[in-house]
Write a structure and sequence with these properties.
Chain lengths: ~230, ~850
């Protein structure tokens, strides 16, 4: 029997704006099982990114509850949420989000260092090898192409051996071929490390490679189906 | 351990990435400038004081008309303080059938403790310094006694009951002048010879001095030990009490130097704050990423706190070294202009430097860096998320508290600190308002201007808040420089006006009426002189409003000691109010009658006022005169001045001698020989050496102030650069985008130059307002000088602002305007 690794109940996000309150997410419920890969799709402004932030514990909902790998993250403080992220969550972002002052190797070592791993360097080297960047370990992000930067980011995401990986438009800044390559890499590593994957994307083809698709519009889930394209 | 490793990694990686460069340069400059200025001010200040101490021939002294008890001297010796004694008294000396009144100074071995004696082999011949003293049985004699007594070196002179041999001509002594018994040409002899002269008897008018020289600390110990036994018969004196005009000059110079250092501290703080804000802004994304990767707020807090501490530990010692090196550079560069032996530096300048570094870090840099812990990790997916940073009260409160702490500790003066800080705060508020107005107006003008200007002015308006802040910083930096420049000018002008180059430096007295025309002619031909000889008649007040003078004095609670109301004084008369005199009460005489005008200080001490009727005794004859005015007299002017000045027609019938003062250049000193040979009975008093010494000290003080001004200007430029750097990223992102969209390099560079020029000119206007205001307050409240308006500041402020800010701005953004826009955009992405 598969276990639920991520559960959201009645998640609502309302932002105050100059024109009054703006509802981004309204009473959203969802469950994701361990090992599952789920795509969140929807048009711009549908609330995908906000949902990802809340599910990953980067942000708090206005109301509702989120449980991640057995911990109710909505009742944790930022200190505890950060620890949880460090230990169980990995991220891949559209704009790579590498630290410009660190080399590729140092960027990948970062999660291990923050966790206090005994030998973050060896693990990081292995992962860079795994994503095909063994030769570029001492390069800084500005010396790498977009695809290479995203590969470093993927290596970094798996460096902490996360239970769940959140990917926010991971191919959004890349050309089609490079994007394909990155997606291959993510799915491959996802299988290898038995990670749960939550993927936010516009790209229907990419979403089709996931086990399940959740469609968002106007802050509500308007459709959920098993993917068929993979 | 994990935290330490995290901090060290942060430090290492930020350093490598060049993120810390601006902050470290700001810290190095802050610590370096303050240390260099403190060292210079400290050493120069002590050197000036010690050079000024030459006027006393000692660092401190005890003076009295009584004999000074030997236990004062032994207390000093116990503390390792060097001592010497002097006795000064007037005496008639004889050579054959001629005689002359001289002022004898008998000195012990060791005199002078400070400064040197100067001697020559013939009267008014070239002189040179000497470490020697007259041998027992010998005397050294002032040049002008030689023609008066027909003496030559080697002759014998009778002093009291002793015959002493004149061996050299005394051309200068460090502690010449200063007290009323000390008129008349000098005779220098050994203390051991005094008993043989039989001149010192009970009741003789003798002035005793015990001189001290040693460490400041030991001297204050001694002052503490003797405090109880000094008063009321002995006076403890330093240069400040003994020569108020030098004391004033030194005091003001110290305040000015201090103020210079204080401004450097403020500028350094501003530079560090700017560096830290830029550092923090560039780390918003950095921290958000670290947080998504599991860094907790506590990690971030301790990490960056540790980073700042580490930065301090590295930058402070380095800054001290830089400061020391800069100071040594200054000293060696100035050694040709300022042949002053600087004393060894104390620990305080280094402590001030180090303290400045840490206070700058924790009061100016900590708030923005510390606030990084509250960055939301959501920024990684939503960059538009605003980071509010530290709250304004925290930022400004901690900066103000830090400044206050530093300034009070640095100056030790609450008044100076508060006025400066109030000036800066008040002016900042005023600036904010003016800056907003100016930028608003700028927009209106901008709509009609060419594209480069339109771009610049649009940029100015778009970032109005940042620009107001930057305008404030530019304005403050320029203002601080203008203040220092204004104060320097004001102080130096004040000193110059007190002692102009051609101020009289000789007095001639005892000119009898028959000699008057000839003396006047000789003076006119050979010297620069005011053209007037004043009559001098000895006389005293015997009654006030019909009451006998000493009785009147007692009724008013006055004592009998010291020169009182009825002491014999020099009286004079004049039809017109002499220059350097100003009426402060009553009126100068317009009608004929028996009137007298009193000097202000004399009127206050005796309690006399306008309307009092005084009876005078002159050579046994009495007459009455009414007090019709009280005058303020500039004694520093070196012109003849009188406590009691009469209207014409009162004193003419009494026997008078005449006096005046004149200016004689050093190369014409031989004229004194001619004058004295022709009129052997007249007295010449030379004050040229004293004036030259005062002018030398003022010259040094001026140089010191100029030096500190240059250092502060350096710090000011750094703040400008730091401030431009801090806003560089945002400006460049916009301009790189414009270039990507097809804007030419010329357009961008022109727009940047125009933007900085407008900011600089506005800042200059703002600075001129602030500088005038603060200077006016400082001159009137702190330095107690009259305030004045300086129209040139209104021209110089905006022009300097425009040029300096535009040049600094264009230079420090040049490299990026020239790099391909894609690189700029990528770096800033």
């Amino acid at each position: 029997m598969s276990t639920v690794i991520l559960r959201a109940r009645g998640v609502t996000k309302i932002l105050p704006t100059a024109e009054g309150e703006l509802s981004i997410l309204s009473g959203l419920d969802l469950e994701i099982n361990a090992g599952e890969s789920v795509a969140v799709i929807g048009p711009s402004g549908s609330g995908k990114t906000t949902l990802l932030g809340i599910l990953a514990g980067l942000d708090l909902p206005t109301s509702g509850e989120v449980m991640l790998d057995g911990a109710v993250i909505t009742s944790l403080d930022e200190e505890a949420r950060a620890r949880l992220r460090g230990e169980r969550v990995g991220f891949v972002f559209q704009s790579f989000q590498l630290l410009g002052s660190l080399t590729a190797l140092e960027n990948v070592m970062l999660p291990g260092e923050l966790k206090g791993d005994p030998d973050p360097r060896r693990d990081a080297l292995d992962l860079l090898d795994r994503v095909g960047l063994r030769e570029r370990t001492t390069h800084y992000p500005r010396q790498l192409s977009g695809g290479e930067q995203q590969r470093v980011a993927v290596a970094r995401a798996f460096a902490s051996r996360p239970r769940i990986l959140f990917a926010d438009e991971p191919t959004g800044n890349l050309d089609t071929a490079t994007g394909e390559h990155i997606i291959e890499l993510i799915f491959e590593l996802n299988r290898e490390f038995a990670t749960t994957l939550v993927l936010v994307t516009h790209d229907v083809r990419l979403a089709g490679r996931c086990d399940r698709i959740i469609e968002l519009d106007g802050g509500r889930i308007v459709g959920a189906r098993a993917a068929v394209g993979a | 351990m994990r935290r330490l490793a995290f901090v060290l990694r942060l430090l290492r990686r930020d350093w490598r990435g060049g993120e810390l460069t601006l902050l470290i340069v700001a810290m190095l400059t802050a610590v370096g400038t303050v240390t260099a200025i403190s060292l210079t001010v400290d050493r120069l200040g002590r050197a000036l004081l010690s050079e000024s101490s030459n006027f006393l021939a000692a660092d401190r002294l005890i003076a009295s008309s009584r004999e000074i008890p030997p236990d004062f001297e032994s207390a000093a010796t116990e503390l390792g303080i060097r001592t010497a004694r002097t006795l000064t008294f007037p005496s008639m000396v004889y050579a054959g059938d001629r005689n002359q009144l001289v002022s004898v100074k008998a000195v012990s071995q060791g005199y002078p403790l400070r400064g040197t004696l100067r001697v020559s082999d013939e009267p008014f011949g070239p002189d040179s310094p000497t470490d020697a003293l007259p041998e027992p049985g010998e005397i050294w004699l002032d040049g002008r006694v030689f023609p008066a007594l027909g003496l030559a070196p080697g002759d014998t002179l009778v002093v009291g009951e002793a015959a002493l041999r004149v061996t050299r001509v005394l051309a200068g002594e460090p502690d010449r002048g200063g007290n009323f018994l000390d008129f008349g040409p000098r005779l220098l002899m050994r203390l051991e010879d005094v008993p043989a002269t039989g001149m010192v008897k009970p009741g003789s008018r003798i002035y005793h001095r015990l001189l001290f020289s040693g460490d400041e600390g030991d001297l204050s110990d001694l002052a503490g030990r003797l405090e109880g036994s000094i008063k009321p018969h002995y006076r403890w004196m330093s240069i400040r009490e003994s020569s108020p005009s030098i004391g004033d000059a030194l005091g003001r110079a110290e305040s000015c130097l201090m103020l210079g250092g204080l401004l450097a501290v403020l500028l350094a703080g501003a530079a560090v704050a700017l560096g830290a804000h830029r550092y923090a802004r560039r780390h918003y994304e950095h921290v958000a990423i670290l947080k998504t990767l599991g860094a907790t707020p506590a990690n971030i807090r301790y990490g960056y706190l540790g980073l700042l501490a580490g930065l301090g530990l590295v930058a402070v010692p380095l800054g001290l070294l830089v400061g020391g090196a800069v100071h040594l550079g200054i000293v060696s560069a100035l050694s040709t202009f300022m042949p002053v032996d600087l004393p060894m530096p104390g620990a305080k300048p280094f402590a001030v430097g180090a303290m400045t570094g840490f206070v700058c870090l924790f009061a100016f840099a900590l708030p923005p860096v510390f606030a990084l812990h509250s960055i939301s990790p959501m920024r990684v997916i939503r960059r538009d998320l605003e980071h509010l940073g530290p709250s304004a009260p925290v930022t400004y409160g901690s900066a103000a508290a830090g400044s206050l702490l530093l300034l009070i500790w640095y100056t030790g003066s609450l008044v100076l600190t508060l006025w400066t800080l109030l000036g800066v705060i008040g002016v900042s508020l005023l600036f904010g308002a003016i800056a907003l107005l100016l930028l608003h107006g700028g927009h209106r003008v901008g709509m009609q201007a060419g594209s480069r200007w339109r771009l610049a002015l649009a940029g100015l308006r778009r970032r109005r808040n940042e620009n107001v802040a930057q305008l404030l910083i530019f304005g403050l930096a320029i203002m601080l420089l203008l203040i220092l420049l204004l104060l320097r000018t004001e102080l130096i002008e004040e000193w110059r006006s007190q002692l102009p180059e051609d101020a009289p430096n000789h007095f001639v007295m005892n000119v009898v009426p028959e000699e008057l025309d000839d003396v006047r002619q000789m003076l006119t031909e050979n010297t620069t002189y005011g053209g007037v000889l004043f009559p001098m008649i000895r006389g005293r007040i015997i009654a006030v409003n019909g009451t006998e003078a000493s009785q009147w004095r007692r009724e008013r609670g006055g004592g009998d000691d010291g020169p009182g109301i009825s002491s014999e004084r020099n009286l004079s008369f004049s039809e017109t109010l002499p220059p350097n005199n100003r009426i402060v009460a009553g009126q100068w005489w317009a009608t004929s009658g028996a009137y007298v005008s009193l000097e202000e200080e004399f009127a206050r001490e005796t309690g006399l006022a306008v309307g009092d009727s005084l009876r005078f005794d002159v050579a046994g004859a009495t007459f009455d005169a009414e007090v019709t005015s009280v005058r303020e007299v500039e004694w520093d002017s070196m012109a003849p001045n009188f406590f009691l000045l009469f209207s014409p027609g009162v004193l003419e019938q009494y026997a008078a001698t005449w006096m005046t003062s004149f200016h004689l250049t050093a190369d014409k000193k031989r004229f004194l020989n001619t004058l004295l040979s022709r009129f052997p009975t007249i007295t010449v008093i030379e004050v040229d050496e004293i004036i030259a010494q005062v002018q030398r000290i003022i010259g040094r003080v001026t140089q010191a102030i100029e030096l500190v001004l240059a250092l502060v200007m350096g710090a000011g430029c750094l703040v400008l650069v730091a401030s431009i750097q801090a806003s560089r990223d945002q400006r460049l992102a916009e301009h790189a985008l414009l270039r990507a969209l097809g804007g030419s390099r010329r357009l961008i560079q022109g727009a940047l130059a125009a933007e900085f020029a407008v900011l600089g000119a506005f800042a200059g206007v703002v600075a001129a307002v602030g500088a005038e205001l603060t200077t006016w307050i400082l001159t009137t409240q702190v330095f107690a000088l009259p305030g004045s308006v300086h129209p040139w500041v209104w021209m110089v402020g905006p022009v300097v602002g425009l040029v300096v800010v535009a040049v600094c701005g264009v230079l420090s953004t040049r490299s990026l305007v020239h790099s391909p826009p894609i690189l700029v955009l990528r770096e800033l992405a």
